[in-house]
Amino acid sequence: MFDLKWIRDNPGAFDAGLAKRGLPAQSSEILALDKVWREAQTEAEQLQAERNRLSKEIGTAKAKGQDVAEIVAQVAASKERQAAMEAEAAERLRAVEALLATIPNIPAEDVPEGADAEANRMVRQHGTPLRPAFKPKEHFEIGERLGLMDFGRAGKLSGARFVVLQGKLARLERALGQFMIDIHTREFGYTEVSPPYLVRDEAVYGTGSLPKFADDLFRTTTGLWLIPTAEVPLTNLVADEILEEARLPLRFTAWTPCFRSEAGAAGKDTRGMIRQHQFSKVELVSIAHPEGSNDEHERMTACAEEILKRLGLAYRVMLLCGGDMGFASRKTYDIEVWLPGQAAYREISSCSNCGEFQARRMKARFRPREGKGTRHVHTLNGSGLAIGRTLIALLETYQNADGSVAIPEALRPYMGGIEAIAPDV
To answer: In terms of C-beta density within 10 A (0-12 exposed, 13-18 middle, 19 or more buried), how is residue 205 classed?
Structure first.
């Protein structure tokens, strides 16, 4: 959501930000609705002031024994007109807010121009992409050969874009989640949270998925939404609250299942675990001071990168262009891990600074140590990491020619000392 006063004062900058996302100008339409709303609101306030004056005249006239019927009629007419103007003002304000709710965040100044991923800019690269001497297999080939990854049975249970993991692969998935949570809480200062997986409209609206992206989510018959990511409940922990400045930044992490309808993913990644309706992820969320959010963004991205470094996975960090960023983000780094089976980098984490965009929708503020009033916090979120995609990267990176998969040293304590997963002969 946006500050209407800022749009009034900076219509050109607002439209330029939308243009960086490849979107048409919107300031004229917004300001036209805003003008009608303010005019109706102003008239309602003037009518109230006029009625107050007339009420005083009635008292004075009665004290003098004068006929007050005409003044009473004026008061009644004024009251009726005020009610009409207040109703119109409320309707116009709803129209402005409904329009603003569909407009994405304005990109930061250092976000590159561009319409899609082709314009994204590489910031850094870590590790050398592995190209084994044998022809590497993709993760689903490895998992099925191990007899521990079953898409057929998952299809019978739930349909496409689901998987059943068994035995040591199921344990490896669990080990990854525990490993990530331990690092983020013990070393990086995040507070572990176990949040609800079902949330109300207000929570999904607060982070920006509603109203525009309802088709990407799953909704229950009771009106609650399955979380697409723990970003939704974690960020909304501060909704409708006023925090003390000394508490900032707040850092939360959660390991949860995530549910996405993948409405726009027809034909994409139909094989394997890359794009699933249900997957696990460790989420990172920060509630930050506006002056500290850029540094917090760099810190959060580094926390996610550290997981990949300790697992020995090659990756690169990409700064997304305006046309490739998420709805609520003002700046996003994508971390892309190297998958030898695909011979390609694939996204494994997005770390985004949303500025005050989500905070305005959630009414999340803080009280500065000095001065009066309150300010909106800045919110940030990132994957630390997507567990399913990390599992994919491990299978493809640590595969051996005989079909076995080595376990990285960092995970062996979580695997009971198991050093490799081998197919049953």
So the answer is: buried
Cα separation, 383 vs 332, whole angstroms: 12
CA distance 152 to 224: 30
263 has pLDDT over 90:
no
Provide the 3-class DSSP secondary structure of residue 30.
helix
Q: What is the pTM of this model?
A: 0.92
Side-chain-side CA neighbours of residue 277 (13 Å): 17
Domain ranges of the chain: 4-100, 117-421
Alpha-carbon distance 102 to 214, whole Å? 12
At 264 the pLDDT is 65
Topology of the domain covering 117-421: BirA Bifunctional Protein; domain 2 (3.30.930)
**Burial (CB count within 10 angstroms: exposed 0-12, middle 13-18, buried 19+), residue 201:** middle
> What secondary structure letter does DSSP report for 238?
G
CATH of domain 4-100: 1.10.287.40
Which residues are marked as active site? 260, 275, 347, 350, 389
pLDDT at 418 over 80: yes
Q: What are the tens digits of pLDDT across the range 117-169? A: 999 999 999 999 999 999 999 999 999 999 999 999 999 999 999 999 999 99
Report how far residue 157's alpha carbon sits from residue 332's, in angstroms, rounded to the nearest whole number.
36
Residue 331: what are its φ and ψ, rounded to 5°?
-160, 135
Query: What is the C-alpha to C-alpha distance for residues 390 and 315, in angstroms, rounded to an integer?
Result: 11
Burial environment of residue 39 by CB neighbours within 10 A (0 to 12, 13 to 18, 19 or more): middle
Q: Does residue 211 have a cis bond before it (omega within 30 degrees)?
A: yes
DSSP 293: H
Q: How far apart are CA 246 and CA 249, in angstroms?
A: 8
Report the chain's C-alpha Rg in angstroms. Answer: 27
Q: How far apart are CA 353 and CA 333, in angstroms?
A: 9
Tokens of 47: 């009518």
Output the furthest CA–CA distance in the chain (Å, rounded). Answer: 109
CA atoms within 13 A on the CB side of 204: 25
